[in-house]
Model the fold of this input.
Amino acid sequence: MSYTQLAIVAVVCAVLFDLLVARTQLLKRRVFWTSYAIILSFQLLTNWWLTSRNIVMYNPATIVGLRIASAPIEDLLFGFALVLGVLTNWMRIGALEKRRQQL
Done:
């Protein structure tokens, strides 16, 4: 499986986890998109630094080739999936803990 395919699968899994499994509906909240915009700016800066200096390199055969801030677009997909997955899980665990404390 290529890096591109893995990145797409990661995004699909994170979206399904948010909307159907945990049901936190973060994707529908402005606070998520504001937080993601802040995180994205730092991700782009970090990716640019790592890839423009060849600290991290990618096999051209496994990526689409579209780059933003010197990093493959797939990195942004993975970053999105990671942020959404972690925040969704954080919200889900927080809600479970709150319910547990109320019992």
